[in-house]
Design brief:
heterodimer, A: 565 residues, alpha/beta, ABC transporter transmembrane region fold, 2 domains, six-stranded mixed β-sheet, four-stranded antiparallel β-sheet, 65% helix, B: six-stranded mixed β-sheet, 10 strands
């Protein structure tokens, strides 16, 4: 920071110098008329016009340096802030993401940092430059004719106020327009994505009417913005026109009385003409101060808020694991206040396959999320090979535990890249091997571009089953000892479900596995079944044991078989 | 580039269409024209008045004329202000109207298009045509062009007056114009493009954030923080570099523009001073010229920008009209039926998506009013195609489909779809609340009506459990709703309106066993008096249907009641047996046996309906 401050000082000096030089051209216009044309000296005319061009060029050069240095400095600072903000976000607990929407975070990281950058690199410079330019110009005017100067400067001050106001009035309207445009875009895209539903339910006409309505609203907002812009934006003409009129009127009599020369009068008129742009900028930049400060405040809040997943300083790395898992009296309540687990104890032996079933909201998935340290339990502990996972390095934990979420996220990029996410050092050979185990290789190989096929937002659309398999391949590419599957069949149709379950048998071989599911079709894969309800374990045992107990499992199972008939 | 050149002729035609849209607001265009002319005259008179104040009032000492002249000067200021305000508002109104109409026409096209159309374009691309391309067209072509025309009128006016006042001085003051154009073209256009590039880089940075926040579970579970961060670092650094490049260009461009304009001022003063000294022109005229020269060269910059913007706007215009001109639309014409009973007949229907590759081969069957039929078969057997044809998304290559004896080819599409509804497998929820999503088929339905349908379906309790019940925003909880739960909402939606024929295309494929059983019972009641076609892979759904149609490789292979098909011991029986087996565990074979016994029981308990005409 000290180095930055050292940079700031010469920068301010340069801005002041640029403003001083920038205030000179109207003075040279005055001299070229008074000392040149009026005095009948062509050499003076040439001298002062040369100075006029020279001073503009000098001011331009100074401005260039200032602009370049301040932009570089500001962009550097913002690049750093942006990076820190994004890093801070990535390190947060899942609870943070449950609370914040993607849009909000994007707005923090990109828009807010952009606004701060713009303020630091442009606005601050403009305010300093325009304000000092005004000051120097005012000095030149006052030294020539105080009363005329008072009128001119007064009018310019009014213009600054009008522009700041304009900027503040128009901004919420633009914001409204932006939001309404978002409404239109989401309406169009949702109708297109769901076009078969729209046509299948015969609602094209009512959807068109809905669009028409929002479209009209959007037009009205834009027209409103146009009106404000027309009245305020063009106020320069009125304000500076009035200033010129007053200068002309009093100036003429000042010339008559010998107080002012024709050149002096021209100087005032030139100032009025050339200062209108810096004045606009000054007004708008002043209006921006508050917004930039608010953006900076939000950014710093993000940086300084806690909620980070903490790694102990003496965290250890496990080179190899056996794969035993133990939940020891684990209780957990989500940050939102939802109680998810109540004193849960489970012991999973190395190589054992456990299926956890239970109704939605019974806390099944939470178990997996705690094991991944997306959250930390409020009470109790989770151990792998007898080591509390909070004592492990995060990287070590995640190397040994593979997690396949319910709705696997596919990143835009190639299929190979998506699989290699699990292990950036994976060779194509490793990727293909993982894809083969996940039984997705044949499909990928059948694509014209094979593993280089682009998927994600702008790429190939994958079906639920294909996504699930790519996610499994992604988990397998690092060959984890422990595999966690969060309802792998939840979003699959029956045919795909059947095929996946068949293939999972091979995939799970030699690993400790916890599968969470609402469906009992996965029973065939499990050595042991845990039944959960309301955050507690209510039954535990093999299929046969549980069937004999005639408890909740028995009820779930018979209802499934009945519907299968 | 080649595309741009090859479609040059199209552009003139499309430009003409835009022009027609502009001219549709005749009165506004007339007002703009008047405002431009009056405003330009006022703007051009004011420097002349200034010269009169100096020459007549000050130089010649006729100070009594000054108040009148200054008054006139102020009048021109007021006139300029007034006309500019009117002009700005009116141009914007015209532009916004054109925009609105373009957006509306595009959306209408999207609603009317045939399914082929949506296969041709990507959703994002179509959305961008409505949102981005229309704005580009407005900025560059509608408001841009109108403003440019206004600027050109005042430029031409300045030139004429200047030439009239002093031809020599005018000639000299034009010297800097080529320099101005050169700078605007070389630097200005590049600056604008760099700004655009900055925006693109920022949006790329945004998508890095968006993607990784959306996929945060994956990022965390694989410990990808470092690699994601370095990706972000690179993207952020690109923004940094492009922004700095933009400020270098801006730092060069704006001062150079200033230098050029002060150069023109200097040239006018120097040469004008020389002429003044020689008595060719007066001091007042010289001062007036300093003002005229600003008005002449000021808009040059904007004109060059406009020229550049026009290039990209023409491309946007092409994209808009390419869609508007697309002929892949569903024509909505034909006869209309008042009421239907719901009888459906497929009469030797063949269908090919790609010529030469039939996906439906000689399909014939009859579904009587009020019957519920299951359409089963493996993936790719042609089940969804049957639904597509019945909805008139496509038309049969050969054969006929009859609704109450009327060939649907002759029916108006909107009329057909008033009676026949289709619920696709890919459940789609619209942005809005749960109740909005259900009401979408019947916007005037009351909340009570919706709740009643949900109660009948047995999903009322499920909805009540959502954070805000029926008023839960599905976007906010979209992530937390399972596919099965979304399907339940979609089901309620289809049942709210009184369709006569309902097609469920795997619409319950993702609900769990318990819910499915509950819904099967509820559906029977809700489908009372309606014709239902249930496309299902899980044969459990077929059990309760009146008839079952089994498709295989585009052909109808078996048709009959559940019991008949089981008795036949054909394909259906094999499939059914296989599915039951899947559910059984190794070592739990008693259940398979008892399930087998259940077939036998079912056979006897169900009344025999020996209508096997279709098989």
């Amino acid at each position: 920071m000290a180095g930055n401050l050292l940079l700031l000082l010469p920068l301010i000096v340069l801005v002041l110098l640029a403003a001083y030089v920038g205030s000179l051209p109207p003075v040279f216009v005055r001299y070229s008329i008074d000392r040149g044309v009026a005095a009948g000296s062509l050499s003076n005319v040439l001298l002062y016009t040369a100075l006029l061009v020279g001073s503009t060029a000098a001011a331009g050069t100074l401005n260039f340096i200032v602009r370049y240095v301040s932009a570089k400095y500001a962009q550097e600072v913002v690049h750093k802030i942006r990076l820190e903000a994004f890093e801070a976000v990535l390190r947060k607990y899942m609870g943070f993401f449950d609370r914040s929407s993607v849009g909000q975070l994007i707005s923090r990281i990109t828009n807010d940092s952009e606004r701060v950058a713009d303020f630091l690199s442009n606005r601050l410079r403009m305010i300093t430059y325009a304000a000092s330019l005004l000051a120097f110009s005012a000095y030149n005017m006052f030294s020539l004719d105080p009363s005329l100067a008072a009128v001119t400067v007064g009018v310019m001050g009014a213009a600054v106020v009008v522009y700041a106001r304009f900027s503040m009035i128009i901004r919420p309207i633009y914001e409204m327009a932006r939001q309404q445009l978002g409404v239109l875009a989401s309406l169009v895209s949702s109708d297109l994505v769901g076009i078969k539903t729209v046509k299948g339910l015969n609602i094209t006409t009512s959807e068109f009417r809905r669009f028409e309505l929002e479209n009209d609203k959007f037009m009205d907002i834009n027209v409103r913005a146009a009106k404000v812009r027309a009245v305020y934006g063009n106020s320069t003409i009125l304000i500076f026109g009035t200033a010129s009129t007053l200068v002309l009127f009093y100036g003429a009599f000042a010339v008559q009385n010998g107080i002012l020369t024709v050149g002096g009068l021209t100087m005032f008129l030139t100032y009025i003409a050339t200062l209108s742009r810096p004045i606009n900028m000054l007004g708008m930049s002043i209006a921006d101060i508050q917004r930039a400060l608010a953006s900076a405040k939000r950014l710093f809040e993000l940086l300084e808020s806690g909620e980070n997943v903490l790694e102990k300083p003496n965290a250890i790395t496990l080179e190899k694991v056996q794969g035993s898992i133990e939940f020891r009296g684990v209780s957990f309540t989500y940050p939102s206040g939802k109680k998810a687990l109540k004193n849960v104890t489970i012991h999973v032996k190395p190589g054992e396959k456990v299926l956890i079933v239970g109704p939605p909201g019974s806390g099944k998935s939470t178990l997996l999320k705690l094991l991944m340290r997306f959250y930390d339990p409020n009470e109790g502990a989770i151990l792998i090979d007898g080591v509390d996972i909070r004592d492990l390095k995060l990287s070590s934990l995640r190397r040994h535990v593979g997690y396949v979420p319910q709705e696997p996220f596919i990143f835009s990029g190639s299929i190979a890249e998506n699989i290699a996410l699990g292990n950036p050092n994976a060779s194509l050979e490793n990727i293909v091997k993982a894809a083969k185990i996940a039984k997705i290789h044949e499909f990928i190989a059948s694509l014209p571009k094979g593993y280089e096929t682009l998927v994600g937002e702008r790429g190939l659309n994958l079906s639920g089953g294909q996504r699930q398999r790519i996610a499994i391949a992604r988990a397998l590419v690092r060959d984890p000892k422990i595999l966690l599957l969060d309802d792998p069949v939840a979003n699959l149709d029956a045919e795909t479900e059947k095929a996946l379950i068949e293939d999972l048998r091979d995939i799970l071989k030699g690993r400790t596995v916890i599968i969470v599911s609402q469906r009992l079709s996965l029973v065939t894969l499990a050595d042991r079944i845990v039944v959960m309800d309301d955050g507690q374990i209510i039954e535990e045992g093999t299929h046969d044991e549980l069937m004999r107990r005639r408890g909740m499992y028995y009820r779930l199972y018979t209802s499934m078989v009945r519907s299968g008939e | 580039m080649s595309e741009r050149e090859s479609s040059g002729k199209v552009k003139i035609a499309t430009l003409r269409e835009v022009l027609n849209l502009v001219l549709a607001s005749k009165r506004d265009v007339a007002v703009v024209a008047i405002a431009v002319v009056v405003g330009s005259v006022a703007m051009l008179i004011s420097p002349y008045i200034l010269s009169l104040v100096i020459d007549e009032g000050i130089s010649k000492g006729r100070y009594e004329a000054v108040p009148m002249l200054v008054g006139l000067y102020f009048a021109t200021v007021l006139l300029q202000w007034g006309t500019t305000v009117v002009r700005t508002v009116k141009i914007e109104v015209i532009g916004q109207k054109v925009l609105k109409n373009l957006r509306q026409s595009l959306f209408r096209k999207y609603m009317e298009a045939s399914l082929d159309f949506y296969n041709e374009y990507q959703t994002g691309d179509l959305v961008s045509r409505v949102i981005n391309d229309t704005s580009t067209v407005n900025e560059a072509i509608v408001t841009g062009l109108l403003n440019t025309l206004g600027d050109m009128v005042s430029m031409m006016g300045s030139l004429v007056i200047m030439a009239y006042l002093s031809p020599q001085l005018t000639a000299v003051s034009l010297i800097t114009v080529p320099l101005m154009i050169f700078i605007a073209k070389k630097l200005g256009v590049r600056l604008r493009r760099t700004w655009r590039e900055v925006r693109e880089r920022v949006s790329r940075l945004t998508s890095v954030v968006e993607e990784n926040v959306s996929g945060i579970e994956v990022v965390k579970s694989f410990g990808l923080e470092e690699s994601v961060l370095s990706k972000f670092d690179r993207a952020s650094h690109e923004v940094y570099r492009t922004s700095v490049r933009a400020s270098i260009l801006a730092g060069l461009f704006f001062p150079l523009m200033n230098v050029t304009s002060s150069l023109s001022l200097a040239v006018v003063i120097a040469y004008g001073g020389f002429l003044c000294l020689n008595g060719v022109i007066s001091v007042g005229l010289l001062v007036a010229f300093t003002q005229y020269v600003n008005r002449l060269i000021g808009p040059i910059n904007d004109l060059v920008f406009m020229y550049d913007a026009l290039q990209s706007a023409l491309a946007s215009l092409d994209r808009i009209f390419a869609v508007l001109k697309s002929e892949k639309v569903e024509l909505d014409e034909g006869v209309e039926l008042e009421k239907v009973r719901g009888e459906i007949v497929f009469d030797h229907v063949w269908f090919e998506y790609v010529p030469g590759i039939p996906v439906l081969k000689d399909i014939s069957f009859t579904i009587r009013p009020g019957e519920v039929v299951a359409l089963v078969g493996h993936t790719g057997a042609g089940k969804t195609t049957i639904a597509n044809l019945l909805m008139k998304f496509y038309e049969p290559t050969r054969g006929r489909i009859l609704l109450d004896g009327v060939d649907i080819r002759t029916l108006k599409r909107s009329n057909l779809r008033k009676f026949v509804s289709y619920i696709p497998q890919e459940t789609y929820l619209f942005p809005g609340t749960v109740i909005d999503n259900i009401k979408v088929v019947k916007p005037d339905a009351s909340d009570e009506e919706v709740i009643e349908v949900c109660k009948k379906l047995g999903i009322h309790k499920f909805i009540e459990r959502l954070p805000k019940g029926y008023y839960t925003d599905v976007g906010e909880i979209g992530k937390r709703l399972s596919l099965g739960e979304k399907q339940l909402i979609a089901l309620a939606r289809a049942m709210l309106k009184d369709f006569k024929v309902v097609i469920f295309d795997e619409a319950l494929s993702s609900v769990d066993a318990e819910t499915e059983e509950m819904l099967r019972n509820a559906l029977r009641e809700l489908l009372e008096g309606k014709t239902g076609i249930i496309i299902a892979h899980r044969l459990s759904m077929a059990r309760d249907c009146d008839k079952i149609i089994l498709l295989s490789d585009g052909r109808l292979v078996e048709y009959g009641t559940f019991d008949q098909l089981v008795q036949r011991r054909g394909h259906f029986y094999e499939m059914y047996k296989a599915q039951i087996k899947e559910l059984e565990l190794a070592g739990a074979q008693q259940q398979a046996v008892s399930a087998g016994a259940a077939f036998e029981e079912g056979k006897h308990s169900k009344h025999q309906d020996l209508n096997t005409s279709g098989s």
